[in-house]
Amino acid sequence: MIPHQFTQLHCSAFAKTKKEVCFPEGELVFITEDRLDDALSMPRQCFIDDEPMGKSIGVQFTEEFKLYWLTTFRQGLSFMLVNPTNGDIMGFRGICTALKEDKEEVNQIKDASLRKIFSILGLLVKEADFFGRYDIEECFHFFGLGVAKQYRKRGIAKRLMEAGIVFLRNLDVDPVYIKSEGTSNFSQKTFEQLGFETLAEIKYEEYEVDGEVVFKNTGEHKSVKAYGMKTSKA
Ligand SMILES: CC(C)(COP(=O)(O)OP(=O)(O)OC[C@H]1O[C@@H](n2cnc3c(N)ncnc32)[C@H](O)[C@@H]1OP(=O)(O)O)[C@@H](O)C(=O)NCCC(=O)NCCS
């Protein structure tokens, strides 16, 4: 069973993770309620400007979008990497939980850009059939991974992802099921190197709504992929 309330267990699992995954360049900090303001600056500093789908359609950090991040960070499973010398947030790993019965009501999303993003993700998730494939009712969801521009290409994203897996294993949930989506070549490479299974893929150039390609000019990033992982302590 996934613990749905923040407990001492989360803190000890996180402390253990910090010893197990090495970040010589910064301090791994757990996002607790008192750090939500700092946490909400992360999507703007490390994510939105360069995430391929959002960038291609000019997604903005609206109040509606902010709420998705807030809901994720409030679950007390996400963490960030902080530079101890200047206080910079270097990167973050968003983690939340997901239920088989969860439904994204795409038509109720007011922001048109967000609606486009959640529409393609909805299609992808349907194709991936994560819950059916693993025959489960709930899982963890890696939602949002970002590294600030000046700290990229040093292996930070890879270690944040690794720390996410180690942290969830340390929570005493066994086995651990993780679902996620990778919209960038770089995150996809990391998911695959860490042993995630590719469950579905939609190529940006083939995804059309009303006869028009939605995500244009995504550069070297060619598709969005759905991933799944089942992992155990042993
Ligand atoms: C995607 C992102 C998190 C990667 O962060 P990072 O710390 O630079 O990534 P890493 O250094 O751990 O690199 C991961 C892999 O991608 C490769 N990579 C990263 N940036 C690259 C670049 N600009 N060009 C080519 N390869 C790159 C790395 O070489 C590495 O592969 P390797 O292990 O085979 O060497 C970062 O670019 C980012 O924040 N982008 C904007 C938000 C986003 O797109 N998030 C992911 C959405 S799913």
TrEMBL record:
InterPro entries according to UniProt: Acyl_CoA_acyltransferase, GNAT_dom
Occurrences of domain N-acetyltransferase (ranges): 109-204
SUPFAM superfamilies, sorted: Acyl-CoA N-acyltransferases (Nat) (SSF55729)
Protein name: DNAT-like protein
Pfam family, one: Acetyltransf_10
Cited PANTHER family: ARYLALKYLAMINE N-ACETYLTRANSFERASE-LIKE 7, ISOFORM A, N-ACETYLTRANSFERASE-RELATED
